[in-house]
Amino acid sequence: MLEKLLRIVVTRGTISSAELSRRLGVSPALAENMLHELTGRGYLKVVAGRCSVSCDRCLMYAMCQGDQRPRIWVLSRKGEQWLSSVDMRRGSALSGFR
What we know:
The protein is 56% helix and 8% strand. It is mainly alpha-helical. The chain has a single domain, classed as Winged helix-like DNA-binding domain superfamily/Winged helix DNA-binding domain (Arc Repressor Mutant, subunit A, Orthogonal Bundle), CATH 1.10.10.10. Helix 2 crosses helix 3.
């Protein structure tokens, strides 16, 4: 399930924690715990105060208004390397069936 979370972060770009928990089929609290765990282990990093998209094009724009800024996670280099290694292992495992 942690792999699925990482892949959602990669493919979706921005996603609310409610949507993330829905996609994972877990409670919002568990989704938050998973994000915290992956961040602590270095697979995700929190983007603090900088975004790659201008505010007028961001899907999270409405959530940024006022004092409640959303937390935005991105895959770290360690996370990218781990997902690549998983994909490579799966690719080599599947090559025996061709």
